[in-house]
Amino acid sequence: MPWGSPRTHEEFEAAARAVLTGLPEEFRAALGDVSVEIADFADAETLDTMDIRDPYDLLGLYHGVGLPSKSVWDPVSLPDRIFLYRFPIMDYAHRNREPVRRVIRHVLIHEIGHHFGFSDADMDEIESGA
User: Fold this and answer.
1) What CATH number does residue 90 fall under?
2) Could you tell me the CA-to-CA distances from 21 to 11, 24, 25 in Å, in that order?
3) Strand 81-85 relative to strand 60-63, pairing
4) 18-46 pLDDT per residue, tens
5) Is residue 125 within a helix (H) or strand (E), and if so which, with residue range?
6) Could you read off the pLDDT of 4-16 as tens digits, one per residue?
7) pTM for this prediction
8) How many independent structural domains does the chain possess?
9) Upper half-sphere CA count for residue 108 (Cβ side, 13 Å)
């Protein structure tokens, strides 16, 4: 699997973990307790809430309160999480002839951007300038 595409849930999870570990230490440290979770697809409730009809249209999701909106006075809440959706990511990589790890990295960084308080528009602007 090190050179090929992840085929199983476990291989995909290992690839995502390797991508996360490969990010700069300062970046990973700033994530704090944010967990990265792998699911085959977003659940129906998430898709309905986001008005997404095709489950392949959602590659990842940040679920939590971005750092700029957090306060020490906030009530205790669930930990922030980043979801990577395995089948949509693998499908996207295949359709666009990109390595799965590259797509995982792109989606992971995009969702981490939401943790730091960036909107989708902010992320698009950053990516277009890079």
Assistant:
1) 3.30.2010.20
2) 15, 8, 8
3) antiparallel
4) 999 998 888 788 788 888 999 999 999 99
5) helix 120-129
6) 678 899 999 999 9
7) 0.81
8) 1
9) 25
